[in-house]
Write a structure and sequence with these properties.
The chain has 380 residues and is of the alpha/beta class. Helix content is 52%, strand content 9%. Strands 1, 2, 3, 4, 5 and 6 form a 6-stranded mixed sheet that branches. Helix 5 packs across helix 6 (103-115), helix 6 packs across helix 8 (131-149) and helix 8 (131-149) crosses helix 13.
């Protein structure tokens, strides 16, 4: 642009009269304006074509039950049930874009994002909405689901604990059990804020999710937000579950939960004997029976990550948004369990496993040691 200005100054000296000079400056200004307009147009983001009417004209009227479940990992009946509970909230505020997005379409966008590994940028053109609108819809739908449906994840009452313990005794021969505790890693696309604490021992960024489930496997307690490098036992000690269990306010005195050897023994938490190659026959049998009972939490995590594939990797950068997506996925998991929405067909092995695989970090409780010995002695 500077070179063009110098050229105009040189050419101006060749004109003979004022009329020629006026004509020259008019031409000069129009040329510069044209160049500026071209520059502004070139700097704009090119128009991205979108699929129009996909939700309104194809999904809703034309998808049969199998098509719907294939794409959204939910039955149409389960989708409608969720819409009944939160549709009025989705319709209460304009979520962005030139045209207001209907609640059904908002929930379809959210379900598509949770069921698949596509990014928001890939979801955007499929539903004919902008990327920013997709981002707002997903964030807002997560918050509404948590506010309206969080009560589907709740700790069982005393009467319910007795029923669960009876089922565990009959199915797995392990007595007094009301839940199984475990931790899993939710892979992240990058470390939030560049914090290296999110890198776990398998060298990928993740966020810890601690779960307790019953035998169905329904989630009865979740806790998430800790970076991937954190020890499972430390996550437990900082959770509300630990505080309440230590105070005796959630697990009945004669009941317990079971976990793996990363956790410390407590009167309310029983773990296997660490295999150092010198376990006796009775201890090995105890470990086999406990391991059989622990399979339910592996199925639970396998269903969560197999059905709602977003739990395999979350490409979001704010920790609070990551937590919101994880909790929403857990709520959807429980809704599917409660409504028996084709659970078995979505269970897949958790590929991340236990990246840290730390041994127990804290000292075992004496009463916990005695409780484990009593249970071992009473096994048939």
């Amino acid at each position: 642009m500077a070179t063009l200005g110098v050229l105009y100054i040189i050419l101006e000296n060749f004109f003979d009269d004022d009329h020629d000079i006026v004509h020259f400056w008019s031409l000069r200004n129009s040329t510069i304006g044209h160049l500026i307009a071209q520059s502004q147009f070139a700097s704009r983001r090119p128009y991205l074509p979108r699929i129009t009417g996909f939700a309104e004209d194809i999904i809703i009227p034309q998808f049969n039950s199998c098509d719907f479940k294939y794409h959204f990992r939910l039955s149409r009946e389960m989708f409608e049930e969720i819409l009944v509970h939160i549709g009025h909230r989705l319709a209460s505020d304009h979520c962005g874009g030139l045209v207001e997005t209907e609640p059904t379409k908002q929930l379809l966008i959210f379900a598509c994002y949770m069921a698949n590994t596509e990014s928001m940028r890939e979801v955007s053109p499929c539903f004919n909405v902008g990327l920013a609108t997709v981002h707002r819809i997903i964030g807002r739908t997560c918050r509404i689901i948590i506010e309206c449906l969080a009560n589907v994840i709740r700790w069982p009452s005393s009467a319910e604990q007795q029923v669960i313990a009876t089922r565990f005794q009959l199915n797995y021969m392990f007595p007094h059990t009301v839940g199984v505790l475990d931790g899993t890693h939710i892979r992240l696309s990058s470390c939030p804020g560049g914090d290296p604490d999110y890198i776990n021992r398998k060298s990928f960024p993740s966020m810890q999710l601690q779960v307790v489930c019953d035998d169905t496997p329904l989630l009865t307690n979740i806790y998430t937000g800790w970076p991937g490098s954190t020890h499972d036992a430390r996550v437990l000690r900082n959770s509300e579950l630990f505080t309440r269990a230590e105070a005796g306010s959630c697990i009945d005195p004669d009941k317990l939960i079971i976990g793996d050897s990363a956790y410390p023994l407590k009167p309310w938490l029983v773990t296997p004997f660490r295999d150092n190659g010198r376990l006796n026959l009775q201890q090995r049998r105890f470990n086999r029976v406990l391991s059989s009972g622990r399979q339910v939490v592996e199925r639970c995590i396998g269903h969560l990550k197999g059905r709602f594939r977003r739990s395999r990797e979350i490409p979001v950068h704010k920790p609070e948004d990551i937590v919101s997506i994880i909790v929403s996925g857990c709520i959807l998991h429980n809704l599917c369990i409660i409504h028996k929405d084709d659970v078995e067909n979505f269970i897949e092995e958790d590929g991340n496993g236990h990246p840290n695989n730390y041994p127990n970090l804290f000292r075992n409780d004496v009463n916990g040691i005695n409780r484990r010995l009593q249970i071992m002695a009473g096994l048939p």
